[in-house]
Write a structure and sequence with these properties.
Number of strands: 14
Helix content: 25-40%
Bound molecules: iron/sulfur cluster
CATH architecture of the largest domain: Orthogonal Bundle
Shape: elongated
CATH superfamily of the largest domain: Hypothetical protein, domain 2
Strand content: 15-25%
CATH topology of the largest domain: Endonuclease III, domain 1
Number of helices: 20
Distance between the termini: 74 Å
Structural class: alpha/beta
Number of domains: 3
Protein backbone atom coordinates (compact mmCIF):
# COMPACT_ATOMS: atom_id res chain seq x y z
CA UNK A 1 0.00 0.00 0.00
CA UNK A 2 1.34 3.45 -0.85
CA UNK A 3 0.78 6.17 1.74
CA UNK A 4 1.03 9.77 0.60
CA UNK A 5 1.44 12.41 3.25
CA UNK A 6 -0.53 15.13 1.58
CA UNK A 7 -0.56 17.38 4.63
CA UNK A 8 0.98 20.81 4.33
CA UNK A 9 3.79 21.65 6.71
CA UNK A 10 2.86 23.93 9.57
CA UNK A 11 5.25 26.87 9.26
CA UNK A 12 5.01 30.62 9.90
CA UNK A 13 7.26 33.49 8.87
CA UNK A 14 8.58 33.79 12.41
CA UNK A 15 8.87 30.05 13.17
CA UNK A 16 12.20 29.57 14.89
CA UNK A 17 12.42 25.82 15.42
CA UNK A 18 11.32 22.93 13.27
CA UNK A 19 10.08 19.67 14.78
CA UNK A 20 10.09 16.75 12.39
CA UNK A 21 8.36 13.47 12.83
CA UNK A 22 8.05 10.48 10.58
CA UNK A 23 4.60 9.13 10.19
CA UNK A 24 4.81 5.49 9.36
CA UNK A 25 1.17 4.53 9.33
CA UNK A 26 -2.20 5.83 8.37
CA UNK A 27 -3.47 5.52 11.91
CA UNK A 28 -1.21 8.10 13.48
CA UNK A 29 -2.23 10.62 10.83
CA UNK A 30 -5.92 10.34 11.48
CA UNK A 31 -8.00 13.44 12.17
CA UNK A 32 -5.96 15.41 9.62
CA UNK A 33 -3.27 16.80 11.85
CA UNK A 34 0.04 15.47 13.04
CA UNK A 35 0.34 13.38 16.14
CA UNK A 36 -3.39 13.07 16.70
CA UNK A 37 -3.26 9.48 17.80
CA UNK A 38 -5.02 9.45 21.17
CA UNK A 39 -2.21 7.52 22.81
CA UNK A 40 0.58 9.73 21.47
CA UNK A 41 1.95 11.99 24.21
CA UNK A 42 3.39 14.62 21.88
CA UNK A 43 0.94 17.40 22.75
CA UNK A 44 0.96 16.51 26.43
CA UNK A 45 4.73 16.82 26.52
CA UNK A 46 4.69 20.13 24.64
CA UNK A 47 2.06 21.60 26.94
CA UNK A 48 4.13 20.61 29.99
CA UNK A 49 7.31 22.08 28.53
CA UNK A 50 5.63 25.37 27.64
CA UNK A 51 3.48 25.29 30.80
CA UNK A 52 0.22 25.70 28.95
CA UNK A 53 -3.15 23.98 28.94
CA UNK A 54 -3.24 20.95 26.64
CA UNK A 55 -4.52 22.06 23.23
CA UNK A 56 -7.52 20.02 22.12
CA UNK A 57 -8.65 20.96 18.65
CA UNK A 58 -6.60 21.29 15.49
CA UNK A 59 -7.16 25.01 15.67
CA UNK A 60 -5.85 25.11 19.28
CA UNK A 61 -2.81 23.13 18.23
CA UNK A 62 -1.99 25.42 15.36
CA UNK A 63 -2.37 28.44 17.63
CA UNK A 64 -0.09 26.76 20.18
CA UNK A 65 2.63 26.17 17.57
CA UNK A 66 2.33 29.70 16.27
CA UNK A 67 2.61 31.17 19.79
CA UNK A 68 5.81 29.28 20.43
CA UNK A 69 7.27 29.85 16.98
CA UNK A 70 7.38 26.12 16.20
CA UNK A 71 7.14 24.66 12.70
CA UNK A 72 5.98 21.06 12.40
CA UNK A 73 6.37 18.66 9.50
CA UNK A 74 7.07 15.15 8.37
CA UNK A 75 10.48 14.07 7.08
CA UNK A 76 8.81 11.87 4.50
CA UNK A 77 6.28 12.77 1.86
CA UNK A 78 5.28 9.23 1.05
CA UNK A 79 6.20 5.62 1.54
CA UNK A 80 5.13 2.15 0.63
CA UNK A 81 3.80 0.23 3.58
CA UNK A 82 3.53 -3.50 3.52
CA UNK A 83 1.99 -4.63 6.73
CA UNK A 84 1.90 -2.32 9.74
CA UNK A 85 5.36 -2.41 11.30
CA UNK A 86 8.05 0.27 10.81
CA UNK A 87 10.56 -2.21 9.43
CA UNK A 88 8.25 -2.92 6.53
CA UNK A 89 8.32 0.62 5.16
CA UNK A 90 9.82 0.59 1.68
CA UNK A 91 10.65 3.18 -0.97
CA UNK A 92 10.23 6.19 1.22
CA UNK A 93 10.27 9.62 -0.45
CA UNK A 94 11.59 12.60 1.51
CA UNK A 95 9.89 15.98 1.78
CA UNK A 96 11.81 19.03 0.60
CA UNK A 97 12.68 21.00 3.72
CA UNK A 98 14.82 23.81 2.35
CA UNK A 99 11.86 26.02 1.34
CA UNK A 100 10.75 25.96 4.99
CA UNK A 101 14.03 27.47 6.12
CA UNK A 102 13.88 30.06 3.42
CA UNK A 103 10.45 31.35 4.26
CA UNK A 104 10.86 31.37 8.05
CA UNK A 105 13.44 32.10 10.72
CA UNK A 106 14.11 28.43 11.54
CA UNK A 107 17.56 27.96 13.05
CA UNK A 108 17.19 24.62 14.89
CA UNK A 109 15.78 21.30 13.77
CA UNK A 110 14.54 18.57 16.14
CA UNK A 111 13.40 15.10 15.24
CA UNK A 112 11.01 12.99 17.31
CA UNK A 113 11.88 9.34 17.54
CA UNK A 114 14.58 7.14 16.06
CA UNK A 115 13.00 6.74 12.61
CA UNK A 116 12.57 10.46 12.04
CA UNK A 117 16.19 11.05 13.00
CA UNK A 118 17.43 8.34 10.65
CA UNK A 119 15.30 9.61 7.78
CA UNK A 120 16.50 13.15 8.42
CA UNK A 121 20.15 12.06 8.37
CA UNK A 122 19.60 9.99 5.26
CA UNK A 123 17.65 12.50 3.19
CA UNK A 124 17.62 16.01 4.58
CA UNK A 125 20.75 16.76 6.58
CA UNK A 126 22.78 17.37 3.44
CA UNK A 127 20.05 19.47 1.85
CA UNK A 128 19.88 21.81 4.85
CA UNK A 129 23.50 21.55 5.95
CA UNK A 130 22.13 21.56 9.48
CA UNK A 131 22.45 18.87 12.13
CA UNK A 132 19.19 17.84 13.77
CA UNK A 133 18.86 17.35 17.52
CA UNK A 134 17.18 13.98 18.18
CA UNK A 135 14.35 13.87 20.71
CA UNK A 136 12.77 10.65 22.01
CA UNK A 137 9.59 9.37 20.51
CA UNK A 138 6.38 10.30 22.29
CA UNK A 139 4.65 7.25 20.85
CA UNK A 140 3.09 4.75 23.30
CA UNK A 141 5.53 2.20 21.82
CA UNK A 142 8.31 4.06 23.61
CA UNK A 143 6.99 2.80 26.93
CA UNK A 144 10.30 3.08 28.73
CA UNK A 145 10.02 6.88 28.67
CA UNK A 146 7.63 8.27 31.26
CA UNK A 147 5.81 11.53 30.69
CA UNK A 148 8.17 13.15 33.15
CA UNK A 149 11.34 11.94 31.42
CA UNK A 150 9.95 13.01 28.05
CA UNK A 151 9.21 16.45 29.46
CA UNK A 152 12.80 16.68 30.66
CA UNK A 153 14.19 15.70 27.29
CA UNK A 154 11.94 18.17 25.44
CA UNK A 155 12.98 21.01 27.76
CA UNK A 156 15.82 21.58 25.26
CA UNK A 157 13.28 23.27 22.96
CA UNK A 158 13.29 26.28 25.27
CA UNK A 159 17.01 26.76 25.18
CA UNK A 160 18.82 28.42 22.33
CA UNK A 161 22.47 27.40 22.09
CA UNK A 162 23.31 31.08 22.06
CA UNK A 163 21.42 31.99 25.21
CA UNK A 164 24.47 31.25 27.39
CA UNK A 165 26.52 33.75 25.42
CA UNK A 166 24.38 36.83 26.10
CA UNK A 167 25.20 37.67 29.70
CA UNK A 168 29.01 37.26 29.73
CA UNK A 169 29.31 38.97 26.37
CA UNK A 170 27.27 42.02 27.38
CA UNK A 171 29.19 42.34 30.67
CA UNK A 172 32.49 42.22 28.76
CA UNK A 173 31.25 44.78 26.22
CA UNK A 174 30.21 47.27 28.90
CA UNK A 175 33.73 47.11 30.35
CA UNK A 176 35.93 46.77 27.29
CA UNK A 177 34.18 48.51 24.39
CA UNK A 178 36.13 51.12 22.47
CA UNK A 179 34.84 54.68 22.61
CA UNK A 180 34.15 55.41 18.98
CA UNK A 181 32.45 58.58 17.73
CA UNK A 182 29.52 56.71 16.19
CA UNK A 183 28.79 54.94 19.46
CA UNK A 184 27.62 58.18 21.11
CA UNK A 185 24.54 58.59 18.99
CA UNK A 186 21.13 57.09 18.27
CA UNK A 187 20.83 59.06 15.05
CA UNK A 188 20.18 56.55 12.23
CA UNK A 189 21.79 58.83 9.62
CA UNK A 190 25.12 59.03 11.51
CA UNK A 191 25.03 55.29 12.22
CA UNK A 192 24.36 54.56 8.56
CA UNK A 193 27.28 56.72 7.42
CA UNK A 194 29.64 55.05 9.90
CA UNK A 195 28.50 51.56 8.89
CA UNK A 196 29.01 52.24 5.19
CA UNK A 197 32.42 53.80 5.83
CA UNK A 198 33.45 50.83 7.99
CA UNK A 199 32.81 48.36 5.16
CA UNK A 200 36.29 47.61 3.78
CA UNK A 201 37.96 50.39 5.79
CA UNK A 202 39.75 50.23 9.15
CA UNK A 203 38.23 51.90 12.22
CA UNK A 204 41.18 54.25 12.69
CA UNK A 205 40.93 55.53 9.12
CA UNK A 206 37.15 55.94 9.34
CA UNK A 207 37.38 58.15 12.45
CA UNK A 208 39.12 60.88 10.41
CA UNK A 209 36.54 60.89 7.62
CA UNK A 210 33.37 60.34 9.65
CA UNK A 211 33.41 63.63 11.52
CA UNK A 212 34.47 65.68 8.50
CA UNK A 213 31.71 64.09 6.41
CA UNK A 214 28.96 64.74 8.94
CA UNK A 215 30.14 68.30 9.55
CA UNK A 216 29.74 69.11 5.88
CA UNK A 217 26.68 66.93 5.24
CA UNK A 218 24.83 66.82 8.56
CA UNK A 219 21.46 65.60 7.24
CA UNK A 220 20.00 63.13 4.79
CA UNK A 221 18.72 66.09 2.76
CA UNK A 222 22.18 67.66 2.50
CA UNK A 223 23.64 64.35 1.31
CA UNK A 224 20.86 63.99 -1.26
CA UNK A 225 21.66 67.41 -2.74
CA UNK A 226 25.47 67.65 -2.67
CA UNK A 227 27.35 67.87 -6.01
CA UNK A 228 28.86 64.52 -7.01
CA UNK A 229 32.41 65.92 -7.31
CA UNK A 230 32.20 67.33 -3.78
CA UNK A 231 30.81 64.05 -2.43
CA UNK A 232 33.64 62.06 -4.01
CA UNK A 233 36.16 64.55 -2.64
CA UNK A 234 34.76 63.99 0.87
CA UNK A 235 35.07 60.26 0.29
CA UNK A 236 38.60 60.49 -1.10
CA UNK A 237 40.97 58.15 0.72
CA UNK A 238 38.23 55.76 1.84
CA UNK A 239 38.23 53.94 -1.51
CA UNK A 240 35.36 51.89 -2.98
CA UNK A 241 33.66 55.03 -4.27
CA UNK A 242 30.49 53.20 -5.28
CA UNK A 243 29.67 53.29 -1.56
CA UNK A 244 29.48 57.09 -1.68
CA UNK A 245 27.34 57.06 -4.81
CA UNK A 246 24.95 54.54 -3.27
CA UNK A 247 24.72 56.68 -0.13
CA UNK A 248 23.58 59.59 -2.22
CA UNK A 249 21.07 57.54 -4.22
CA UNK A 250 19.64 56.14 -0.96
CA UNK A 251 19.48 59.63 0.57
CA UNK A 252 17.51 60.83 -2.46
CA UNK A 253 15.03 57.97 -1.99
CA UNK A 254 14.70 58.79 1.72
CA UNK A 255 13.96 62.42 0.84
CA UNK A 256 11.44 61.49 -1.84
CA UNK A 257 9.60 58.73 -0.01
CA UNK A 258 10.15 59.32 3.70
CA UNK A 259 10.53 63.11 4.07
CA UNK A 260 14.26 62.73 4.67
CA UNK A 261 13.79 60.40 7.67
CA UNK A 262 14.87 56.81 8.22
CA UNK A 263 11.84 54.47 8.22
CA UNK A 264 11.58 52.05 11.15
CA UNK A 265 10.90 49.27 8.71
CA UNK A 266 13.36 46.50 7.86
CA UNK A 267 12.20 45.89 4.29
CA UNK A 268 12.21 49.61 3.47
CA UNK A 269 15.74 50.08 4.84
CA UNK A 270 16.98 46.85 3.25
CA UNK A 271 15.77 47.98 -0.17
CA UNK A 272 17.95 51.13 -0.18
CA UNK A 273 20.94 51.07 -2.57
CA UNK A 274 24.10 49.79 -0.88
CA UNK A 275 22.20 48.41 2.13
CA UNK A 276 22.39 44.66 2.71
CA UNK A 277 21.13 42.51 5.58
CA UNK A 278 24.06 43.49 7.76
CA UNK A 279 23.70 47.25 7.34
CA UNK A 280 19.90 47.19 7.69
CA UNK A 281 20.22 45.16 10.91
CA UNK A 282 22.96 47.42 12.27
CA UNK A 283 21.03 50.66 11.63
CA UNK A 284 17.71 49.38 13.00
CA UNK A 285 19.17 47.70 16.07
CA UNK A 286 21.61 50.47 17.03
CA UNK A 287 19.37 53.44 16.26
CA UNK A 288 15.94 52.04 17.16
CA UNK A 289 16.72 48.97 19.34
CA UNK A 290 14.86 46.75 16.88
CA UNK A 291 15.81 43.05 17.24
CA UNK A 292 17.39 42.46 13.81
CA UNK A 293 20.73 40.67 13.49
CA UNK A 294 23.80 42.38 12.04
CA UNK A 295 26.12 39.60 10.89
CA UNK A 296 29.35 40.90 9.39
CA UNK A 297 32.64 39.00 8.95
CA UNK A 298 33.60 39.54 12.60
CA UNK A 299 30.28 38.25 13.89
CA UNK A 300 30.43 35.25 11.55
CA UNK A 301 33.80 34.34 12.99
CA UNK A 302 32.61 34.57 16.60
CA UNK A 303 29.43 32.58 15.97
CA UNK A 304 30.92 29.89 13.81
CA UNK A 305 33.51 29.28 16.50
CA UNK A 306 31.18 29.56 19.47
CA UNK A 307 28.83 27.02 17.89
CA UNK A 308 31.63 25.10 16.11
CA UNK A 309 29.88 25.41 12.74
CA UNK A 310 31.83 23.78 9.95
CA UNK A 311 29.66 25.06 7.10
CA UNK A 312 30.96 27.32 4.35
CA UNK A 313 30.15 30.82 5.61
CA UNK A 314 30.09 32.28 2.12
CA UNK A 315 26.91 30.33 1.29
CA UNK A 316 23.68 32.38 1.57
CA UNK A 317 21.96 29.55 3.45
CA UNK A 318 24.69 29.53 6.13
CA UNK A 319 24.29 33.29 6.53
CA UNK A 320 20.53 32.89 6.85
CA UNK A 321 20.92 30.22 9.51
CA UNK A 322 23.36 32.35 11.51
CA UNK A 323 21.01 35.32 11.34
CA UNK A 324 18.15 33.14 12.52
CA UNK A 325 20.19 31.84 15.43
CA UNK A 326 20.91 35.34 16.66
CA UNK A 327 17.27 36.31 16.26
CA UNK A 328 16.50 33.72 18.92
CA UNK A 329 18.34 35.73 21.55
CA UNK A 330 17.84 39.30 20.31
CA UNK A 331 15.22 41.38 22.09
CA UNK A 332 14.35 45.09 21.92
CA UNK A 333 16.17 45.41 25.26
CA UNK A 334 19.48 43.89 24.21
CA UNK A 335 19.60 44.26 20.39
CA UNK A 336 21.61 47.49 20.36
CA UNK A 337 24.31 46.28 22.74
CA UNK A 338 24.34 42.61 21.73
CA UNK A 339 24.92 43.23 18.01
CA UNK A 340 27.70 45.68 18.79
CA UNK A 341 29.20 43.36 21.43
CA UNK A 342 29.44 40.52 18.89
CA UNK A 343 31.14 42.84 16.39
CA UNK A 344 33.49 44.15 19.06
CA UNK A 345 34.49 40.68 20.24
CA UNK A 346 35.28 39.72 16.64
CA UNK A 347 37.30 42.91 16.13
CA UNK A 348 39.32 42.77 19.36
CA UNK A 349 39.49 39.20 20.69
CA UNK A 350 38.13 36.55 18.33
CA UNK A 351 40.66 37.42 15.63
CA UNK A 352 41.24 35.37 12.46
CA UNK A 353 43.20 32.11 12.43
CA UNK A 354 45.89 31.73 15.10
CA UNK A 355 45.53 35.34 16.23
CA UNK A 356 42.42 34.57 18.35
CA UNK A 357 42.98 35.69 21.95
CA UNK A 358 40.97 32.94 23.63
CA UNK A 359 42.66 33.45 27.01
CA UNK A 360 41.13 36.97 27.17
CA UNK A 361 37.72 35.93 25.85
CA UNK A 362 34.62 36.13 28.07
CA UNK A 363 33.16 33.16 26.18
CA UNK A 364 36.11 30.81 26.52
CA UNK A 365 34.41 28.39 28.93
CA UNK A 366 31.37 28.10 26.64
CA UNK A 367 33.01 28.17 23.22
CA UNK A 368 32.74 24.87 21.34
CA UNK A 369 35.61 25.58 18.95
CA UNK A 370 37.84 26.25 21.93
CA UNK A 371 36.76 22.95 23.48
CA UNK A 372 37.16 21.03 20.23
CA UNK A 373 40.43 22.69 19.25
CA UNK A 374 39.04 23.96 15.94
CA UNK A 375 39.57 27.71 16.50
CA UNK A 376 42.28 28.15 13.87
CA UNK A 377 40.34 26.37 11.10
CA UNK A 378 37.02 28.18 11.63
CA UNK A 379 35.20 29.81 9.98
CA UNK A 380 35.24 27.68 6.84
CA UNK A 381 35.61 29.65 3.63
CA UNK A 382 36.39 28.37 0.12
CA UNK A 383 39.87 29.15 -1.13
CA UNK A 384 40.17 32.62 -2.65
CA UNK A 385 40.45 32.81 -6.42
CA UNK A 386 43.70 34.18 -7.77
CA UNK A 387 43.42 37.93 -8.32
CA UNK A 388 44.74 39.23 -11.69
CA UNK A 389 47.75 41.54 -11.64
CA UNK A 390 47.73 44.54 -14.02
CA UNK A 391 50.91 46.45 -14.79
CA UNK A 392 50.75 50.15 -15.53
CA UNK A 393 52.99 53.11 -16.12
CA UNK A 394 51.76 56.34 -14.54
CA UNK A 395 52.81 59.66 -16.06
CA UNK A 396 53.15 62.80 -14.01
CA UNK A 397 53.29 65.28 -16.90
CA UNK A 398 54.42 68.73 -15.75
CA UNK A 399 54.13 71.96 -17.68
CA UNK A 400 54.98 75.25 -16.00
CA UNK A 401 53.97 74.08 -12.51
CA UNK A 402 50.75 72.54 -13.77
CA UNK A 403 50.05 68.80 -13.89
CA UNK A 404 48.10 66.76 -16.44
CA UNK A 405 44.92 65.15 -15.11
CA UNK A 406 42.00 63.39 -16.75
CA UNK A 407 38.56 62.32 -15.61
CA UNK A 408 37.83 58.62 -15.60
CA UNK A 409 34.73 57.27 -17.40
CA UNK A 410 31.41 57.52 -15.56
CA UNK A 411 31.09 53.73 -15.31
CA UNK A 412 33.39 51.00 -14.02
CA UNK A 413 36.25 51.00 -11.55
CA UNK A 414 36.90 54.38 -9.85
CA UNK A 415 34.19 55.90 -12.05
CA UNK A 416 34.08 59.68 -12.34
CA UNK A 417 37.30 60.25 -10.37
CA UNK A 418 40.47 61.95 -11.62
CA UNK A 419 43.73 60.27 -12.52
CA UNK A 420 47.15 61.00 -13.92
CA UNK A 421 47.66 59.73 -17.49
CA UNK A 422 48.72 56.11 -17.69
CA UNK A 423 50.07 53.60 -20.17
CA UNK A 424 49.61 49.86 -20.20
CA UNK A 425 52.51 47.72 -18.99
CA UNK A 426 55.68 48.64 -17.14
CA UNK A 427 57.47 50.71 -19.77
CA UNK A 428 61.10 51.72 -20.00
CA UNK A 429 62.22 55.34 -20.10
CA UNK A 430 62.74 55.07 -23.86
CA UNK A 431 59.29 53.57 -24.51
CA UNK A 432 57.64 56.23 -22.38
CA UNK A 433 59.37 59.06 -24.25
CA UNK A 434 58.15 57.66 -27.58
CA UNK A 435 54.55 57.42 -26.29
CA UNK A 436 54.65 60.97 -24.90
CA UNK A 437 55.89 62.33 -28.23
CA UNK A 438 53.07 60.45 -29.98
CA UNK A 439 50.67 62.53 -27.90
CA UNK A 440 52.14 65.70 -29.44
CA UNK A 441 54.15 66.63 -26.33
CA UNK A 442 57.87 67.43 -26.25
CA UNK A 443 59.65 66.02 -23.19
CA UNK A 444 62.34 68.20 -21.64
CA UNK A 445 63.25 66.11 -18.67
CA UNK A 446 62.27 62.68 -17.32
CA UNK A 447 62.68 61.21 -13.85
CA UNK A 448 61.73 57.71 -12.73
CA UNK A 449 59.56 57.43 -9.60
CA UNK A 450 59.32 54.45 -7.18
CA UNK A 451 57.39 51.27 -7.98
CA UNK A 452 54.02 51.03 -6.24
CA UNK A 453 51.46 48.33 -5.69
CA UNK A 454 47.75 48.84 -5.06
CA UNK A 455 45.44 46.01 -4.06
CA UNK A 456 41.75 46.11 -4.97
CA UNK A 457 39.45 43.25 -3.99
CA UNK A 458 39.34 41.89 -7.55
CA UNK A 459 42.65 43.04 -9.07
CA UNK A 460 46.13 44.20 -8.16
CA UNK A 461 47.96 47.06 -9.86
CA UNK A 462 51.72 47.11 -10.09
CA UNK A 463 52.83 50.57 -11.14
CA UNK A 464 55.90 52.34 -12.31
CA UNK A 465 55.88 56.15 -12.46
CA UNK A 466 57.70 58.85 -14.44
CA UNK A 467 57.72 62.56 -13.82
CA UNK A 468 58.13 64.24 -17.22
CA UNK A 469 58.49 67.96 -17.79
CA UNK A 470 57.12 69.01 -21.21
CA UNK A 471 57.53 72.16 -23.30
CA UNK A 472 53.85 72.84 -23.86
CA UNK A 473 50.40 71.54 -22.95
CA UNK A 474 47.95 69.71 -25.16
CA UNK A 475 44.15 69.62 -25.14
CA UNK A 476 43.86 65.98 -24.10
CA UNK A 477 44.29 66.76 -20.41
CA UNK A 478 43.24 69.20 -17.72
CA UNK A 479 46.37 71.08 -16.59
CA UNK A 480 46.02 72.03 -12.92
CA UNK A 481 48.30 73.69 -10.39
CA UNK A 482 49.54 71.93 -7.27
CA UNK A 483 47.12 73.98 -5.13
CA UNK A 484 44.18 73.10 -7.37
CA UNK A 485 45.06 69.39 -7.33
CA UNK A 486 43.71 69.06 -3.80
CA UNK A 487 40.21 69.94 -4.98
CA UNK A 488 40.11 66.98 -7.40
CA UNK A 489 39.21 63.48 -6.19
CA UNK A 490 42.24 61.40 -7.02
CA UNK A 491 41.95 57.80 -5.80
CA UNK A 492 44.69 56.36 -3.60
CA UNK A 493 45.91 54.09 -6.41
CA UNK A 494 47.08 57.21 -8.32
CA UNK A 495 47.87 59.49 -5.41
CA UNK A 496 51.16 57.63 -4.79
CA UNK A 497 52.45 59.71 -7.72
CA UNK A 498 50.78 62.96 -6.77
CA UNK A 499 53.05 65.91 -6.03
CA UNK A 500 50.94 66.30 -2.88
CA UNK A 501 52.37 62.93 -1.81
CA UNK A 502 49.22 61.63 -0.22
CA UNK A 503 49.66 58.03 0.82
CA UNK A 504 46.52 57.33 2.85
S1 LIG B 1 37.10 31.37 23.01
FE1 LIG B 1 38.42 31.92 21.32
S2 LIG B 1 37.41 31.11 19.52
FE2 LIG B 1 35.90 31.08 21.16
S3 LIG B 1 34.80 32.98 20.88
FE3 LIG B 1 36.44 33.37 22.33
S4 LIG B 1 38.18 34.13 21.12
FE4 LIG B 1 36.69 33.19 19.72
Amino acid sequence: MKVVHELEPFVEKDSKILILGSIPSVKSREEGFYYMHPQNRFWKVLSLVYQEVLPQTIQDKKAFLKRHQIALYDVLSSCEIEGSKDETIRNEKPNKLRPLLQKSEIARVYTTGRKAYQFYQKYSEKELDLKAIPLPSTSPLNAKMTLQSLQQAYQVLLKSELSTLVEPLLAWYQKEKRHLPWRNTNDPYSIWISEIMLQQTRVEAVKRYYERFLKELPTIASLAMVEEDRLLKLWEGLGYYSRARNLQKAAQILVEKYEGMFPKDYEAVRSLPGVGNYTAGAILSIAFSMPYPAVDGNVFRVLSRFLNVDEDITKPLTRLKMENRIKEVLTPFNAKALNQALMELGALICLPKEKAKCSLCPLQALCKAHQENTVSILPIKPKKKEVPILQKTILLLVFDDTYALLKRPSKGLLAGLYQFPELEGMLSRKEVLIKVREQGLQPLYIEEMPLQKHVFTHQIWEMKGYSIRVTEKNDSYLWVSKEELSSYSIPTAYSYYSPLERKN
